[in-house]
Amino acid sequence: MLEKNNIFVAPMAGITDRPFRTIVREFSPDASLVTEMISCHSLVGQHKNCLRNFDDYSNDGNIGAQIFGADVGLMADAARVLQDMGAKWIDINMGCPVPKVATRAGAGAYLMRDHKLAGDIMRAVVNAVEIPVSVKTRLGWDAEHMDWRELVDIAADAGVRFVALHGRTRAAGYTGVAMHPDVRKCPIPIIANGDIQSADDIKNVEKLGYAGAMIGRAMLGKPWKLNELSGGDAPQNIGEIVLRHLDLVIDYYGARTGVPLFRKHAAWYSAGMPGATAFRVAVNQITDVNELKNKISEFWGCVGKI
C-alpha cells in the first residue's frame, strides 16, 4: 500500500466526512484517505445520532477507518465492524489531544501515557481483523515525555503495519512548528504528519526516513491539494466545487444540520480571495440552504443562481 499510495489525507474530526472525501476523490481517485475518528462505544452500540456509524466503505477506494477508545474488547469489536463495512485498513487514534478524548475518556493521546494499555489495544485490533492496522500518534504527552519511539516499537511487536507520527506533543496541540525526528532506524514504516504543505516538505521528510506524508490542515478549502502536490493545477471552477460539496453535505446530513456545518467549509474555500472577510460574515448568518447557495454563486460568479 505504501509503495503506490504514500501520500495520505489525515483524519480530521468534523472535516473528513463522507461528503469531503467524495470531493477529494474527484481530484485524487487513488489517494489514501482516513475517516474522522469513530468512537468504539458509539460504533459497536450503533448509536443512531452518529451517521458515520453506518457508512459503507465498500466503494470508497483506499480508505482507512479510524477508531478511538480505551476498552480493549470494544476496540477489537469496532475494528471487526469496520472491516465488514468495507474499510481497507483500521487506524487506531493514539494522538487526539482534546480533553474529552485524551483525559476524560482515557483514549487518544492518553494512550501515550499508558503503553501497556496501548499495546493491549494494538494486539487486540490486529488479531481481530484480516486487514492491515495502523496507528496515528504524536511525539509524546509533553516535552518531558517524548517517548514516541517506544510506542513505535510496541506497535511493531503487536503487528501494526505502519505509524503516522504527528510532529508535536499532546501538550502543544496544534501550536508551534511541527518537528519531524529522524526515523530511519524504526522497525516499521513511519508516515510524517504536521505542517506538510508542499512537495518540498514531503521531500524533506523522506530524507529523514519517512515512508510517506499525511496532509491535514493544508486540505482545508483545498480538496484538490493532493493533486497539486503531484504537479497538477488548482481548478478554475472553485465556485462549482463549493456548490457540489454543499449539495453532498445536505444530502448526507439534511439542511438543518448541513447548512451550519458547511459554513466553515465555505470560509476555508474563500480564504485569501478579495472580499473573503465580508463573505464569511454574511455566510455565518445564513440558515437557509437556498440563500447559502445564492451567496456562494454570487461570491464566485457561478452560472445559474438558485
Describe the structure.
- The chain is of the alpha/beta class.
- The protein has 2 domains: 7-229, TIM Barrel (Alpha-Beta Barrel); 238-300, Non-ribosomal Peptide Synthetase Peptidyl Carrier Protein, Chain A (Orthogonal Bundle), CATH 1.10.1200.80.
- It is built from 12 helices and 9 strands.
- The protein has helices at 18-27, 40-44, 72-84, 99-102, 115-128, 148-158, 199-207, 225-229, 238-253, 255-270, 276-283, 289-300, and strands at residues 7-9, 32-34, 38-39, 63-68, 89-94, 133-138, 162-166, 190-193, 212-215.
- An 8-stranded parallel β-barrel has the order 1-2-4-5-6-7-8-9, surrounded by 4 helices.
- Strand 6, helix 6 (148-158) and strand 7 form a beta-alpha-beta unit.
- Helix 3 (72-84) runs parallel beside helix 5 (115-128), helix 9 (238-253) packs antiparallel against helix 10 and helix 9 packs antiparallel against helix 12.
- It is globular, with a radius of gyration of 19 Å.
- It starts with 6 loop residues before the first strand and ends in a 6-residue tail after the last helix.
